[in-house]
Design the sequence.
């Protein structure tokens, strides 16, 4: 790790002003990605702004039919939260499958979403559920928020404060984990809200999370596991590595989509 | 018999300190005024070094020294060594390339040590290491095992044309070729034995300390063999001398072969401690372990099995390229030769065998012993080709093996590849394993799986291994640089408890318990009153360390020999105390008794008399302490049958192990609980090799699997519970009757798993059977079916 | 610029000035000499460093000491109520031969204790899944899983667990 200065603000305003005033400041939320990155000297921020002291960023509530999750809510909290479990059980299940128990105790939804790791689980959920990412400056729809691998619509100094997820009619997430890292090789979130079906895929795409429109169309015709599985996904935009070829990822997108659909019923 | 002696599953004496966080691993040790080392490592697989600019690093905060290969040379420090000289089939000695402690003018693998920074803190050392500027002349690299000897490949060492370190053979080529000419059927397979990274959970670490007052060196290190480390560092590398070098290997967090080699890091810590006049500590991080620990396996083989019309084996012909990496590590040459080629007879009557193995240098990390060391590679070839042959002949896999087994009445059994198996009953092992795995009812379970859309398969592996490599005179004639005996010293204290000093080294095996159990059985001292001392060259007699499942068979036997001397001396003392003739004294369960009487004295009373010799034989030395060195007459030959049953999801290629049965013959079992634990761990590593683990370099020699993000370590959810059992044919030539159990699982499991998987998918494939590869194999076999 | 870190470790209050880049595991090992917490990897996967922070298991290699400021930390050294005793989980690991080289053991035990805080009666499969973040190279996990199930039984039988 390179040396840096550490700050622990107690409000969002203070955090934002620290980010603005320091030369190259980085937010640390749960730290489960950032700290390993720092350990490997792959990043060299001058300052770390730790959000864990900002009480207003934590917690889960309902706002009408919308589930609102504070950015600093941990995966373990989301997984165990009765409100989440009742409104969007698929989201609780997804959170319960992120990383391992210790990562879930530290990692946060805001951190995961802001990092937009192409193999992270939450981006698929946000995209399929038509979520809105609320920041210190504005509200951004999930469709506009995830702009590519490790890339988001966030401007420098902008901090994610909460995630707003409209309650779907039904939803489920199916993940095929990388045998080594246990990140998603393919993770598919299927959701139906207001008669519209959205299918979002993480882990597979060269540009990060994406919507599988061909599977969405197939499911609009017949919401069945067979319909999802029958879709032949193109490997062209799939990423490839030693764990999964593009062909295999494309195949798994259909298979995981079909399993998510089966779990929806 | 004592209830804590041989055969008892007592809990481990060493556990308490580990359970409460009071173990002492090398990184837990801190020396006064200690400094910290950070290594500058090559990011290139192959490059010349045009120059190294250390000036910026030298002036960085806290830096005490920045040292390079030139500084080593200036101080007369030599290269690291390989401990076994192999001769090629043309009689030429193996070609040994430079194995510099810090690179001289060439780097030969990613992670190669180029320079070291010593600083006040670890953070300062690492900060400064980034400031060392190395001017590399990057060159093409030779990476792939199978093509390393091809013309036009980049050369690793000028001493080894075409990257060939040696071209070794064993067996009778003419007889084997003749067997093939007469064969009814020939089975041929191509095998890749995937390269593995050992991954003991404790990364390597070292503290070097030079005392200017006594002119002594002390090295704390994560070693499986501290005395061998001392010998190599002093006699070959040239740091100090044996009598003023102390090597301490304290608690060591697993080794699996990767802590046998004498590495650059500990060498540098010792040398640098004199340069900076303070102790120098280095603790590897996992990334360094991946890059620069010795790796394992990495063979590419073609094997052919000749069979007669009855399915009897006639001959086996094997050609292998073995990747030894950039350097010949300490056991790098013996692992693919005498620990490998000598076991091709398996459990079978196999009249003619010919093995040809070409060891090749590549621009990758050195390859050395890894759990099983050569024997897993053999078992994998023999048990895969046996399985494929049975399938080609349309025979039941178990019946095919049974038909070819060496029979119990054929021991000692001379194989065509040098070894004489000592004892065994292979049909009995197979029968037990078949029964435990419900082999007969497998077809029903397969039908049930098929009804669910799953594929099910079952696979056998009937392995043989050789433990406790010996005797010294024989291995010396084959090129070993050392002897492979073991030592023990038993010291009674005046109060009747016992210290046992062993040259073996425990890094998870449980010696502190099993060795104490030997004392309990042989001397009648409760295991709780016995302390095992190991891992410190200043305390223990010279010993050869722990690897090759040798500690109990060789080290344990040395303890028995020393115990016999204790009894002999104790008998003299007891005869005096009991006023009887020595010839009338019997020793049993810790008591010396005048035969046929109730006159008796305990061994504790005898020990007291030995140290407080007021009433004592006139012509006898005081004290009760005896040493023994034991050099076995032969290897021991554990054997077993492992049976794996898998269920595969054809949609994803995911393999689930639904049942794993292991029946092993380890001879006499000292502690069944510990033996089972060794088997479990070995199986997990074997399953890891078969299904998950794979070290991958890209074509340029970059290590793709450089962390747990890409190198797949087996986890708890990857396994079912294992069913394990033992059968027992005692080893006839060591005093304990033991055979060695540490490596069995890692040897037996890979072929069992792959035989099961290939049975399920109906087509052959190479390890590791990852979901991707299984899916691809299914696609290649029947694209239409798998796409459904 | 050094940061001041004050926390409660195994029931004792400690305060140190450290570099901001100091990891919690470095703080425990180097500043406090609590070397039972180990470091086995640098990618937050092996779990040799698992401790409890405010009652939850975390990887001490993936948390800055500064982030742990003001918390209560429990390490393997503080798990048993006093140094002579073993926590039921420690005892179960010994009795079931759930350790060999011992290096992963502290993290494994701290993780398993946290499991039983969530689920007092886990199934074998739940134990195996929970231990995803703890890698052991020696045991094949067989006896670790047995030990955790055994400890769960012991702790259900005891009205008050040691922690």
Sequence:
């Amino acid at each position: 790790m390179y040396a840096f200065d550490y700050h622990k603000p107690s409000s969002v305003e203070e955090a934002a002003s620290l980010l603005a005033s320091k030369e190259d400041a980085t937010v640390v939320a749960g730290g489960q990605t950032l700290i390993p990155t720092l350990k490997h000297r792959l990043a060299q921020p001058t300052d770390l702004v730790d959000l864990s002291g900002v009480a207003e960023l934590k917690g889960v509530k309902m706002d009408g039919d919308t589930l609102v999750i504070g950015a600093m809510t941990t995966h373990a909290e989301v997984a165990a939260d009765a409100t989440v479990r009742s409104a969007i059980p698929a989201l609780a299940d997804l959170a319960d499958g992120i990383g391992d128990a210790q990562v879930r105790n530290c990692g946060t939804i805001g951190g995961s979403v802001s990092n937009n790791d192409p193999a992270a689980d939450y981006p698929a959920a946000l995209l399929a559920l038509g979520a809105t990412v609320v920041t210190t400056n504005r509200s951004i729809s999930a469709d506009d928020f995830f702009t590519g691998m490790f890339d988001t619509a966030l401007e420098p100094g902008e901090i994610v404060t909460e995630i707003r997820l409209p309650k779907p009619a039904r939803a489920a997430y199916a993940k095929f984990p990388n045998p080594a890292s246990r990140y998603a090789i393919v993770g598919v979130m299927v959701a139906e809200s207001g008669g519209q079906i959205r299918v979002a895929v993480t882990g597979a795409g060269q540009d990060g999370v994406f919507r599988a429109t061909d599977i969405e169309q197939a499911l609009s015709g017949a919401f069945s596991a067979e319909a999802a599985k029958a879709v032949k996904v193109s490997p062209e935009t799939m990423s490839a590595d030693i764990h999964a070829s593009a062909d295999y990822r494309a195949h798994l997108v259909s298979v995981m989509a079909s399993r998510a659909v089966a779990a929806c019923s | 018999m004592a209830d804590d002696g041989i055969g008892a599953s007592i809990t481990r004496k060493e556990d308490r300190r580990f359970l409460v966080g009071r173990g002492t691993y090398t990184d837990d040790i801190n020396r006064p005024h200690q400094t910290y080392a950070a290594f500058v490592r090559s990011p290139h697989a192959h490059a010349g070094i045009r120059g190294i600019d250390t000036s910026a690093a030298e002036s960085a905060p806290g830096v005490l020294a920045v040292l390079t290969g030139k500084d080593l040379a200036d101080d007369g420090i030599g290269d690291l060594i390989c401990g076994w000289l192999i001769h090629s089939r043309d009689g030429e000695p193996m070609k040994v390339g430079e194995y510099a402690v810090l690179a001289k003018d060439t780097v030969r693998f990613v992670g190669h040590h180029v320079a070291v920074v010593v600083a006040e803190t670890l953070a300062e050392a690492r900060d400064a290491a980034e400031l060392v500027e190395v001017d590399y002349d990057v060159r093409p690299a030779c990476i792939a095992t199978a093509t390393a000897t091809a013309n036009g490949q980049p050369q690793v060492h000028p001493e080894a044309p075409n990257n060939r370190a040696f071209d070794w053979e064993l067996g009778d080529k003419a007889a084997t070729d003749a067997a093939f000419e007469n064969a009814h059927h020939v089975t041929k397979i191509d095998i890749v034995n995937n390269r593995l990274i050992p991954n003991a959970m404790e990364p390597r670490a070292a503290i070097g300390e030079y005392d200017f007052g006594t002119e002594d060196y002390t090295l704390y290190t994560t070693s499986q063999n501290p005395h061998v480390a001392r010998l190599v560092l002093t006699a070959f590398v040239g740091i100090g001398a044996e009598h003023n070098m102390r090597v301490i290997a304290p608690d060591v967090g697993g080794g699996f072969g990767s802590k046998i080699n004498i590495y650059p890091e500990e060498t540098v810590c010792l040398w640098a401690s004199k340069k900076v006049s303070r102790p120098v500590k280095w603790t590897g991080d996992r990334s360094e372990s991946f890059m620069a620990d010795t790796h394992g396996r990495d063979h590419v083989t073609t094997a052919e099995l000749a069979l007669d019309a009855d399915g009897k084996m006639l001959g086996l012909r094997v050609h292998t390229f073995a990747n030894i990496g950039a350097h010949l590590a300490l056991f790098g040459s013996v692992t693919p030769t005498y620990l490998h080629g000598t076991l091709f007879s398996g459990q079978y009557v196999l009249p003619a065998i010919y093995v040809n193995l070409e060891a090749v240098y590549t621009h990758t990390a050195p390859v050395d012993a890894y759990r099983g060391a050569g024997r897993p590679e053999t078992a994998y070839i023999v048990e895969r080709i046996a399985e494929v042959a049975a399938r080609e002949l349309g025979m039941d896999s178990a019946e095919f093996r049974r038909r070819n087994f060496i029979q119990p009445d054929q021991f000692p059994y001379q194989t065509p590849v040098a070894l004489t198996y000592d004892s065994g009953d292979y049909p009995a092992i197979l029968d037990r394993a078949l029964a435990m795995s419900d082999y007969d009812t497998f077809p029903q379970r397969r039908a049930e799986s098929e009804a669910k859309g799953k594929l099910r398969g079952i696979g056998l592996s009937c392995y043989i291994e050789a433990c406790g490599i010996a005797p010294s005179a024989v291995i010396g004639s084959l090129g070993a640089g050392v002897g492979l005996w073991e030592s023990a010293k038993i010291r009674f204290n005046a109060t009747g408890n016992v210290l046992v000093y062993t040259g073996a080294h425990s890094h998870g095996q449980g010696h502190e318990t099993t060795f104490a159990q030997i004392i309990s059985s042989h001397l009648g001292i409760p295991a709780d009153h016995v302390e095992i001392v190991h891992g410190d060259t200043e305390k223990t007699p010279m010993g050869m360390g722990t690897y090759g499942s040798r500690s109990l068979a060789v080290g344990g036997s040395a303890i028995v020999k020393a115990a016999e001397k204790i009894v002999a001396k104790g008998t003299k003392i007891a005869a005096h105390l009991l006023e009887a003739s020595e010839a009338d004294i019997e020793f049993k369960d810790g008591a010396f008794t005048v035969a046929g009487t109730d006159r008796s004295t305990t061994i504790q009373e005898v020990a007291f008399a030995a140290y407080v010799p007021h009433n004592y034989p006139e012509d006898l030395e005081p004290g009760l302490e005896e040493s023994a060195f034991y050099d076995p007459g032969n290897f021991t030959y554990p054997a077993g049958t492992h049976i794996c049953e898998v269920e595969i999801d054809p949609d994803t290629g995911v393999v689930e192990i639904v049942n794993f049965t292991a029946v092993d013959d380890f001879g006499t079992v000292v502690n069944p609980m510990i033996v089972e634990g060794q088997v479990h761990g070995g199986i997990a590593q074997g399953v890891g090799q078969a299904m998950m683990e794979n070290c991958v370099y890209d074509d340029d020699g970059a290590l793709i699997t450089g962390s747990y993000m890409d190198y797949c370590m087996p986890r708890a959810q990857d396994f079912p519970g294992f069913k394990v059992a033992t059968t027992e044919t005692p080893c006839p030539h060591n005093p304990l009757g033991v055979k060695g159990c540490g490596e069995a699982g890692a040897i037996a499991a890979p072929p069992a798993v792959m035989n099961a998987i290939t049975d399920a998918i109906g087509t052959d494939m190479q390890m590791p059977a990852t979901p991707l590869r299984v899916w691809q194999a299914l696609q290649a076999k029947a694209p239409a079916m798998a796409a459904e | 610029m050094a940061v001041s870190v004050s926390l409660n470790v195994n029931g004792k209050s400690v305060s140190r000035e450290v570099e901001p880049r100091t990891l919690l595991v470095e703080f425990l090992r180097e500043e406090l000499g609590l070397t039972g917490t180990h470091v086995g990897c640098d990618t937050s996967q092996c779990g040799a460093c698992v401790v409890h922070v405010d009652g939850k298991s975390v990887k001490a290699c993936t948390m800055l000491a500064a982030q742990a400021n003001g918390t209560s930390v429990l390490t393997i050294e503080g798990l048993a109520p006093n140094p002579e005793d073993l926590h039921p989980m420690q005892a179960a690991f010994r009795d079931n031969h759930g350790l060999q080289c011992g290096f992963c053991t502290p993290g494994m035990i701290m993780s398993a204790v946290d499991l039983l805080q969530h689920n007092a009666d886990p199934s074998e499969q739940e134990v195996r899944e929970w231990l995803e973040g703890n890698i052991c190279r020696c045991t094949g996990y067989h006896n670790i899983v047995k030990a955790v199930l055994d400890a769960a039984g012991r702790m259900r039988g005891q009205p008050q667990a040691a922690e």
Remarks:
- Chain C is about 35% helix and 15% strand.
